[in-house]
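If you are new to this repository, start here. Below is one unmodified record pulled from the training split, so you can see the exact layout before writing a loader.
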Amino acid sequence: MKPQMLMAAILALAPIGTAFAAQTSGTITAISKKADTITLSDGKNYTLPEGIEDTNLRVGEKVQLTFAIKGGKAVVSDLTREK
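And here is the target side for that same chain:
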């Protein structure tokens, strides 16, 4: 019985702290240079980390993002402009 309880506890705690990367694409509808975020046409905000400059991004531009949820925020790890 103990090995089963141990395995159940391990499986229950495994997702804690694990960030899974996801992808999305859309059109930029807003840019906040102060908060280092962009908003896409899906209505969600995405945080831009150091190294991804928002100065070259424009509202109306189509982009594809790779992001992970960290600290309750969708943090971008890769951003590609779509043609």
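Two things worth knowing about this chain: The chain has one helix and five strands. The beta strands are 22-32, 37-40, 45-47, 62-70, 73-81.
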